[in-house]
Specification:
By secondary structure, the chain is largely without helices or strands. Strands 1-2 form a two-stranded antiparallel ribbon. A two-stranded antiparallel ribbon has the order 3-4. A two-stranded antiparallel sheet has the order 5-6. The longest helix has 13 residues, at about 175-185. It contains one helix and eight strands; from the N terminus they run E-E-E-E-E-E-E-E-H. The protein has a domain at about 160-194. The chain is about 5% helix and about 10% strand. The protein is rod-shaped and about 150 Å long.
């Protein structure tokens, strides 16, 4: 009676066909395997690619779980940084080349930006101004397309023409008083008769 084995040699012994089970004993080695593993997926075990660790700053160690998936330690949420405590900060992403001020960290763990130079007629820079302290600080300053600051023009207070002194001893005449009123109205210091 013939017997067909699942594991056999073919091509005069050049090829070993495994149709059953291949058991590799402890201490044994397998050499010459160069087949590239298929890419890993959510459902299939496979190969991955990663750049070499280039510096000690690459500090998050990746581990494999019992489900054959790779895991990295969860990033903890840092408390907000303060003047005395190291912590996290929030910053918008750099969106354009106009975001040009590079922030650096000092040996005291504080963040530093380059100091602005003083503004000049032809140079964009920093200015100094006291805080607004009361509602009486009412002139709003705006920036123009030429990067200069502008404040509204203060109006010129009009001056009424001179009214000569009355020569009456006790009171001015009606004509003199009316002349004074007319000059005030003409100068815009009094409303016209309605």
């Amino acid at each position: 009676m013939g017997y067909n084995t699942k594991n056999y040699l073919t091509d005069n012994g050049d090829e070993l066909v495994i149709g059953g089970t291949l058991t590799v004993s402890d201490g044994a080695t397998v050499t010459g395997l160069t087949e590239t593993a298929a890419a890993a997926s959510a459902a299939a075990l496979g190969g991955v690619k990663a750049a070499d660790r280039s510096a000690e700053t690459d500090t998050v160690e990746i581990k494999i779980g019992t489900d054959s998936k790779l895991y990295a330690p969860a990033y903890t949420v840092l408390a907000a940084a303060t003047a005395t405590d190291l912590g996290g900060i929030i910053a918008a992403g750099r969106t354009a080349e106009t975001d040009t001020v590079e922030i650096k960290i000092g040996t005291d763990s504080k963040l530093y930006a380059p100091a602005l130079t003083a503004a000049a007629a032809s140079t964009l820079g920093g200015v100094m101004a006291a805080n607004r302290t009361a509602e009486t600080d009412t002139v709003e300053v705006k920036i123009g397309t030429d990067s200069k600051l502008y404040a509204p023009v203060y109006p010129t207070v009009p001056v009424a023409t001179n009214q000569v002194d009355s020569i009456e001893v006790t009171s001015p005449t009606v004509a003199e008083f009316n002349a004074l009123l007319l000059k005030l109205k003409t100068a815009g210091l009094m409303e016209d008769d309605s």
